[in-house]
Design a protein that fits this description.
single chain, about 400 residues, alpha/beta, Rossmann fold, 2 domains, seven-stranded parallel β-sheet, six-stranded parallel β-sheet
Length: about 400
Amino acid sequence: MNPSSLNRSPRVAIACGGSGGHLFPGIAVGEVLVQKGCRVILYVSSKEIDQQGLKDAGGMDVEILPAIGLTRRSIGRFASRSFESFRLSIQSLRKWDPDVILGMGGFTCAPPVLAGKILGKTTLIHEANSIPGKAVRFLAPWVDEVMVGFANASGRIASNALSRTGMPVRSQFSPASQDSCRAVLGLRPSDPLVLVMGGSQGAHSINALFLGILPELYRNNPALQCLHLTGFEDFERVRAVYRKMDLHAVVRPFLTEMEYALGAADFAISRSGASSMAEIAAMKLPSILIPYPHAAQNHQYHNARVFAEKGAACLFDSGCQGPSDLSNLISRFLENPSTLERMRNCLMNEDDIPASENVAGIVMSHLRRFGSQRRGDPGHGMRREFSRSKFFTDGVYTKLSTVS
């Protein structure tokens, strides 16, 4: 046994790449763990959103995996990339020797969590959405504990150790001075401002829908200004429309400092991914939520319903509502400030769960529970074995069959 290992800082691996909705919560938890004296490594994908978002991951190590998402057209590539990610995760975890591995959901988290399980590590996962994704449902029966953001996700996960933590957001997301946020972004201090965004990668359908009603909106509200986050693919096209109409707008493909965007706006038009909703809630910002209709199991619709039923947001269903409905909703927001105030009050009444601290606290509890024996026991470094028959009986067939 290496004596220095007895005194080293606790080590936590966080598998959180693939989208902003997985990456940024992972970074948020990592920030808290670093403050608590842990050393943190992030496992992410090679996607552009991950590389942009890592600018916020100061003080953490990073490992890039070749994993990709599963679609009908990519089954072969998904399998080969997942296997390669698993192989690389085994190598990296053996070298880095973390005490706990935390997966934040999505395709990038599965290989490191499975590798950690094989290596006898403590493994945890967090599910952000109200309808759990495939990766979390697959991993849940095997890991030591599952955390959820929405309470109604619990009944859809097969695990004997479930905790509701809320959805982690980075520490900078808290109500801020609207004037100072607008000054940072070059926006007018007094005129109404709508934020249009489609999640971390943009949303072509939201961009097209909003551009279609722009002329009418500006005829009725000439002082209106827009902060439009387009995603990289639509950026040039959307910016050209604003320039042609000579409208006051700030158009960006992506904004790492989302706290300024949310702090500057009077209200937002947004997808209803769990991470976006958590940041909106943390900033107490009224919103029109437009769920991505092709999300797995329509989970964004169910996310949005949670806020809409509490009066904290308006749900816009693109399957049965059209441009005129969105235009009317926006006009109602602009003409009736009391509507926005009621939504803010509902958000103020939401449980202020310090989710990043909650998740980090659960990680720390596992570190305290197992850390001393792993670093102090003469058997430290030996792999905890688990029965192959128990692995398949309890882990896959028995427990997964109970998932709805």
